[in-house]
Amino acid sequence: MPRPFALVSSARAPRRWTALFALLAMLAAAPAMAQGFDWATLSQLAQSRAQAPYRANGDKLPAELKALDYDQMRLIRFRDERATWFTEQLPFHAQFFHPGGTQTDTVRVNEITDGVAQRIPFKSDRFEYRQVVDPTAWGDVGYAGFRLLHPVNKPGTMDEIAAFVGASYFRALGKNQQYGLSARGLAIDTVGAGAEEFPRFTEFWLERPAPGATQVTVYALLESPRSTGAYRFVIRPGSQTTMTVHARVYLRTGSAPVTTLGLAPLTSMFTFGENQRHATDFRPEVHDSDGLMVVTGEGEWLWRPLQNPRQLVVSSFAMQQLRGFGLMQRDRAFASFEDVEARYERRPSAWVKPLGDWGPGRVELVQLPTPDETHDNIVAYWVPARTPLPGEALELAYELAWQGDDQTRPPSAWVTQTRKGYGYTKLSPQEQAQQPKFVLEFAGPSLAALPAGADVRAMVSADSNGRVLEALAYPNPATQTWRAVIRVERIDPARPVELRAFLQHQNHTLSETWTHLLLPE
Fold this sequence. Notes:
By secondary structure, this protein is mostly beta strands. The protein contains 6 helices and 34 strands. It has helices at 15-33, 39-50, 63-66, 70-75, 429-434, 445-448, and strands at residues 34-36, 77-78, 93-97, 108-113, 116-119, 127-128, 145-150, 159-165, 169-172, 182-184, 186-188, 200-207, 216-224, 227-236, 241-251, 261-268, 270-272, 286-287, 291-296, 301-305, 313-319, 322-328, 349-354, 361-367, 378-384, 394-403, 414-420, 437-443, 456-462, 466-476, 481-490, 497-505, 508-509, 513-518. The strands form 5 sheets. The chain has a 16-stranded mixed β-sheet that branches. Strands 3, 7, 8, 9, 10, 11, 16, 21, 24 and 25 form a 10-stranded antiparallel β-sheet that branches. A 4-stranded antiparallel β-sheet has the order 27-28-31-30. A hairpin with a 4-residue loop joins β19 and β20 (301-305). Mean pLDDT is 92; it is low at 1-32.
């Protein structure tokens, strides 16, 4: 009777047995390497992680990678021909970011093929190192993130359309756009508590696209000390790149309470603009976004111009239902920025459209001071009126559109410029500060359809700390738009003033509502 395979010593076995053992070992290892995967699998993983204490990833990155500076990291380049799905000539390619410098937290990346997931291991031969570092002694250090490529600007040429790297940050591009603002999976205690918590995507699953596919699907597991989440992104590139996002978020059992749970958060930069000029910079404006736009369930469109404040400023817009919100880059003219490298006029707007009813809550806008354009200082997100209990699933679905010149606007009319200041005046500087003046420009189909000589009024209101002194509206023949001039008086200069304005004709609202926070002097 032959001996069982387990009792045969490979050192003494004939060569044919050695080959057979190797094959059996390979088959036995296969199920651990490749596993079935779908949305339910990921949701169960996030739910189970929420029942256990948070475990941070161990710091296993080599010291030489941590020591790399920005310029050195830029020298490490991914080889295009080593992209996932490159050799198969599929319509999407996936390239990977090398860890190092400020990107010290690595992620696991997997590929899904026919419902089976298998890890994509780190391989140093995917990169050109240009003698910056020697990777031979590292082993599998993992990736810092990845980017997706697909033709959007020119047929047959692969363009970067989306990138996931750093905490739960991600961003995307449409046709003729250049990276600007970012989105995040979740924001926890950005304001209202102690230190902010930054949930991060720790593992990704990239679904292999079919030949001729026009969209690609990415799954992600989110984790932090107080949360977990399952995320699915269906990405459709084009003139605007649209992501359909499904999320199932859990707060950890036994963790400290969350003060502010920010859903669908957006992060951007505003240094200065037409409403807040710079005294020494040659550029007229520097920003990735120039305003927050919100649409309430009642159909009111709100526009809040962004500012670079001297201290933290938080604004909230409460409502029973949300139709959409976004950080927008409305100004698309090169002459507004005059920056041939940054090309701020190409920065996308990001518009969040809920799929289904999110219930009551508020859009919160956080504005922080920043000395220059190297720091993001603007955050916007949705805060539900009810925070889920630990272990309870919070279901969330929305479309996130990365828009360029053709972007979401009110169907009536909208603000194209907000300017603050005086021309020639006999008022003293102290009087001008006490009675600030705003000049707004409105454009849109409702205004273009007005008959000549139409009686248009600027409807302006202020909170208890302001008094409206002047509110005029008249056509601007130079631009075929309408101009509103507003002058208000501060009652207490040490307190802010909340202002609202819109255009009206024969008791019909013609425009969105301009809502501005006049900061203390």
